[in-house]
Known about the structure:
InterPro entries: Transpos_IS110, Transposase_20. The chain is mainly α. It has two domains: 12-102; 105-226, no CATH class. The protein has nine helices and two strands, in the order ααααααββααα. The chain has helices spanning 12-44, 58-65, 71-102, 105-114, 122-132, 141-148, 172-188, 190-200, 205-226; strands at residues 152-157, 160-166. It has a two-stranded antiparallel sheet. Strand 1 (152-157) and strand 2 form a beta hairpin. The radius of gyration is 22 Å and the shape is globular. It starts with 11 loop residues before the first helix and ends in a 10-residue tail after the last helix.
Amino acid sequence: xxxxxxxxxxxxxxxxxxxxxxxxxxxxxxxxxxxxxxxxxxxxxxxxxxxxxxxxxxxxxxxxxxxxxxxxxxxxxxxxxxxxxxxxxxxxxxxxxxxxxxxxxxxxxxxxxxxxxxxxxxxxxxxxxxxxxxxxxxxxxxxxxxxxxxxxxxxxxxxxxxxxxxxxxxxxxxxxxxxxxxxxxxxxxxxxxxxxxxxxxxxxxxxxxxxxxxxxxxxxxxxxxxxxxxxxxxxx
Length: 236
């Protein structure tokens, strides 16, 4: 009796909205892959560029199109550029839809509250809202940490246990975004900066940021449960 627990079933609207954010993220990853393909090809050809640029301007694309290359090499690069430009147009279209979704009445206030947490931007806020849905299904912070995968992967053999980093059982999109937001938070929030510095005294930065991510998740949970903005702590 009472041994089985029901699973959370999102509404149809939530599933559809979630789909927009997921396809947006996939298109962004496709654009990154297109850029990496071009960078790799240029490097193979011995063609130098001005560093690992994150923003590709129209002038940079024009420069790629005017490089003096052999016939086959020119065709190869043109196809890579065409692939990138098509993906770029998809990014713009998907971004427009995400912006429209973020302005919907059902999300506008919730996004505003989550953005009060240093490090949380519009996309990250909308991702958490659509993926988590009912925050009250997570009774404790540990439950939410487990859902995201902010718990260790432990291997047991006989009387021995070995910690092997973070578990593979995770909501990878949320965990990835949360860690990205945590790196931003340690730059923007004095309290997080101080906590990160203390953590780094005993462990590596990559392990310390996981501890920061857990603190970030606690803030997100508080805002979503109480429907009030986050007030940063004053560091003396």
